[in-house]
Amino acid sequence: MSLENVKHYFEQFQLSHKIMEFDTSSATVSDAATTIGVEEAQIAKTLSFRAKDPNEAILVVAAGDTKIDNKKFRSQFHIKARMLSPDDVYEQTGHKIGGVCPFGLKNDLLVYLDESLKRFDTVYPACGSANSAIALNCDDLFTYANAEAWVDVCKGWQEE
């Protein structure tokens, strides 16, 4: 059902036909990169965190080769980086782990894009299922994700 919600979401932009569906899994960064044929860093993974309000969540879309930098996260959001449980992710986004994306969300969530994505002309976020993705440039990802802002909350992708 989640993939159908994302397809419906992209219909308003006449882009639902650009969603790629695969016979193999794209549930992990590694699986997605292999399935699509790109480097892992180009996979735009969506990470789900607790917000200050326990009934809300924050989504951070980041490059596939990154990890959250707790110090940067706290500086940006003024809270500790605490990931949601799989059940909470589904409750907040309407997407199951492996297909979480910033599109067709169940709730109106705050979405941020990490600077790590800007290295690439094209990135590949999931589309609500463990075997789907869409190719977008960073400007389009920002627009279609209804992103609040670009943030710098990840590590591991640039020389320290």
Shape: globular
Radius of gyration: 14 Å
Q: Note the beta-strand portion.
A: 15-25%
Distance between the termini: 41 Å
Q: Which features characterize this protein?
A:
160 residues, alpha/beta, 5-stranded mixed β-sheet, 5 helices, 21% strand
Strand-helix topology:
Layout: H1 2-11, E1 20-21, H2 29-36, E2 43-50, E3 57-63, E4 67-68, H3 70-77, H4 86-93, E5 110-114, E6 124-125, E7 132-133, H5 138-144, E8 149-151, E9 154-155
Molecular structure report:
The protein is an alpha/beta fold and 160 residues long. The protein is built from 5 helices and 9 strands. It has a 5-stranded mixed β-sheet, covered by helices on one side. Strands 1-7 form a two-stranded antiparallel sheet. The protein is globular.
